[in-house]
């Protein structure tokens, strides 16, 4: 599926895989494997940004995937996010959609909000929020229509 299909149909909170179509190299080829991992992986869809203009600069629509966290002792030192424009030539697929009834915790209201947590229910979301302190957080419960929809993949030209 294309980046456009992910942007249009995948709900925030879904696990998205991306691939360039090449086979995974053997583990003993560490440099080839590291290069392969830059074009093949998966992450949670945390943000969709429509195209926008700032003066003469025009930015195309994009989506952001949270790939991983690094840190120790329960403290996250840094997060790895990947931003893909809708012009990406990679192949994408929805690996997992959020469960019906899950609650998404966004860091702020509005179009520029980013998913910071996906909880199984409202009580779990409020409990997580009480421990992590996002003062402008917005809770949004997913509906069956949004999370349960089947994505129709487009045909290759």
How would you describe the overall organization of this protein?
By secondary structure, the chain is α+β, with helices and mostly antiparallel strands. It has a five-stranded antiparallel beta sheet. A hairpin with an 8-residue loop joins strand 8 and strand 9. The longest helix has 11 residues. It is globular. 17% of the residues are buried.
Note the main attributes of this structure:
single chain, 157 residues, alpha+beta, five-stranded antiparallel sheet, three-stranded antiparallel sheet, 39% strand
Structure class: alpha+beta
- Low-pLDDT parts are 150-157
- Write down the overall mean pLDDT: 87
Spatial strand sequence of the major β-sheet: 6-5-2-1-7
Count every helix, treating DSSP H or I runs of 4 or more residues as helices. 4
Please summarize the sheet with the most strands. Answer: 5 strands, antiparallel
Principal-axes shape call:
globular
Which H/E pattern describes the elements?
A: HEHEEEEEEEEHEH
Fraction in beta strands: 35-45%
What is the percent of helical residues? 10-25%
Query: What's the number of extended β-strand segments?
Result: 10
């Amino acid at each position: 599926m294309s980046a456009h299909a992910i942007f249009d149909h995948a709900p925030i909170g879904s696990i998205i895989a991306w691939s360039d179509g090449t086979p995974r190299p053997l583990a003993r080829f560490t440099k080839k494997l590291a290069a392969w991992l830059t074009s093949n992986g998966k992450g949670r869809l945390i943000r969709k940004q429509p195209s926008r203009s700032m003066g003469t600069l025009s930015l195309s629509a994009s989506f952001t995937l949270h790939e991983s966290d690094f840190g120790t002792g329960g403290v996250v030192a840094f997060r790895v996010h990947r931003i893909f424009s809708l012009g990406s030539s990679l192949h994408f697929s929805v690996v997992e959609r959020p469960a019906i009834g899950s609650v998404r915790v966004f860091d702020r209201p509005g179009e520029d909000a980013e998913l910071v947590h996906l909880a199984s229910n409202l009580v779990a979301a409020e409990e997580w929020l009480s421990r992590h302190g996002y003062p402008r957080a917005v809770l949004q419960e997913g509906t069956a229509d949004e999370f349960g929809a089947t994505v129709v993949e487009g045909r290759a030209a």
